[in-house]
Amino acid sequence: MVAHRESGRQKAVDLFRKTFGSEPSVIVEAPGRINIIGEHTDYNDGFVLPIAIDRWLFVAAKGASTDRVHIYAADFDEADLFSIREIVRKEEGDWRNYARGVAAQLKEEGVELKGLQALIVSQIAIGAGLSSSAALEAALALAFLEVSDRSLDPLRLALLCQRAEHQFAGVHCGIMDQMATLLSLTGHALLIDCQSLTTQQVPLPDQVTFLVADTGKPRALAASEYNIRRSQCQEAVQHLSQLLGKPLRSLRYVSLEDINRHFFDLPDPVGRRARHVVTENQRVLDFVSALKANDLKLAGSLLLQSHQSLRDDYEVSCPELDAMVEAIMSCDGAYGARLTGAGFGGACITMVDATKAPTVQEESLTRYRNRLRSSPYQPHTFLVRPVGGASVVRLSET
Ligand code: GLA
Question: Cβ(262) to ligand 1 under 6 A?
Answer without folding.
Answer: no
